[in-house]
Design goal:
CATH topology: Rossmann fold
Bound molecules: NADP nicotinamide-adenine-dinucleotide phosphate
Largest sheet: 7 strands, parallel
Shape: globular
CATH architecture: 3-Layer(aba) Sandwich
CATH class: Alpha Beta
Number of strands: 7
Order of helices and strands: EHEHEHEHEHEHE
Length: 240
C-alpha cells in the first residue's frame, strides 16, 4: 500500500505517519509532505528507521498555488524522493494540512485576508493535492480529508470563526463533488475530534495518538458506500 499524508511536520499529520509506519498496514511507501523538509526533524528521525519506506517531500500549499504547476511539481518531487521510477500509484491520501487563524473572530474583527488564506489552505489546498494525484489513484483508493465539526452547518450554534468554519464547510462540499465524480475511489471528510496539538491547544479532549488510532480504524474499514460522507473520528456519522 502507498499512502500520502499532507501537513506531516507536526500534530495530527505527524501522528498519522508514526502510526502508519508502526501498524500492520502492509505499507510499502509513505509520502509525508511538509512545508520545509530541512526543519522536519521528527519525521527525519522516523525516516531513518523506516526501512526506506518514508519519503519526505516539500509541499507548501500557500505558494504552490497554480494547480497545473503544482501537479507537475508535486509528482516530480515525489519521484525525486526515490519512491518510484515507474508510474506513480497511490492507494490512500490523508489530506490533513490546515490552518485556524480566526479563533473567536466576530464581524468586527473579520479580516478578508484571513478568509482568503483559510480557503487557500483548508479548501483549495486539499484539492490541489487531489487534482495533482487524481490520475495516480489506484482503483479502490481511500481518501481521508481532515475537516472539522466547525464546518457543519447544523452544528453551528455559537457562530464566530467565519473563515475557518466556511473553509471547512466548502471542503465538505468539494469532497462530495469529488466522490460523485470518482466512483471508483472512496473519499470521505472526517473530524479528528478536539485534539491536543498546536491548533487544538493543551486543554483539548484527545491525545493525537487516540484520535489518529481511531481515524485509521475508520480508514481501514472504508467501503465504497461510505464515499462522500461526513464522519467523526470514532466512525459515527456527523450532520452536515
Ligand atoms: N487539533 C484539533 O483539535 C482539530 C480539530 C478539528 C480539525 N482539525 C484539523 O486537523 C488538521 C491537522 O490539525 P493539527 O491540529 O495537527 O494542526 P497543527 O498542529 O497546527 O498542524 C498543522 C499542519 O498543517 C501544516 N500547514 C500549515 N500551513 C500549511 C501550508 N501552507 N502548506 C502545507 N502545510 C501547511 C503545518 O505545517 P508546518 O508545521 O510547516 O507549519 C502542520 O504540519 C487540520 O486540517 C485541522 O483543521 C484539528
Amino acid at each position: 500500500m502507498k499512502i500520502l499524508v499532507t501537513g506531516a511536520n507536526r500534530g495530527i499529520g505527524l501522528e498519522f505517519c508514526r502510526q502508519l509506519l508502526a501498524q500492520e498496514f502492509g505499507l510499502q511507501s509513505l509520502v509525508a509532505t511538509v512545508r520545509d523538509p530541512s526543519k522536519a526533524t521528527e519525521l527525519q528521525t522516523l525516516a531513518s528507521s523506516s526501512q526506506n519506506r518514508l519519503h519526505i517531500v516539500a509541499l507548501d500549499l500557500a505558494t504552490d498555488d497554480n494547480a497545473r504547476t503544482n501537479a507537475a511539481g508535486l509528482i516530480d518531487r515525489i519521484k525525486a524522493s526515490g519512491l518510484s521510477a515507474g508510474p506513480l500509484s497511490f492507494d490512500g491520501i490523508i489530506n490533513n494540512a490546515g490552518i485556524y487563524l480566526d479563533e473567536g473572530d466576530s464581524i468586527s474583527s473579520f479580516d478578508f485576508d484571513v478568509f482568503r488564506k483559510s480557503f487557500e489552505i483548508n479548501t483549495l489546498g486539499a484539492f490541489k493535492v487531489l487534482k495533482a494525484l487524481d490520475s495516480t489513484l489506484a482503483r479502490g483508493a481511500r481518501i481521508l480529508q481532515i475537516t472539522s465539526l466547525m464546518g457543519s452547518l447544523s452544528d453551528n450554534r455559537s457562530g464566530g470563526s467565519y473563515a475557518y468554519r466556511s473553509s471547512k464547510a466548502a471542503l465538505n462540499m468539494m469532497n462530495l463533488c469529488y466522490a460523485q465524480e470518482r466512483k471508483d475511489v472512496t473519499s470521505v471528510v472526517i473530524h479528528p475530534g478536539w485534539v491536543q496539538t498546536d491548533m487544538g491547544g493543551r486543554n483539548a479532549q484527545l491525545a493525537p495518538e487516540e484520535s489518529v488510532a481511531q481515524m485509521l480504524r475508520v480508514f481501514r474499514n472504508l467501503k465504497p458506500s461510505h464515499s462522500g460522507r461526513f464522519f467523526n473520528y470514532d466512525g459515527s456519522e456527523l450532520p452536515w
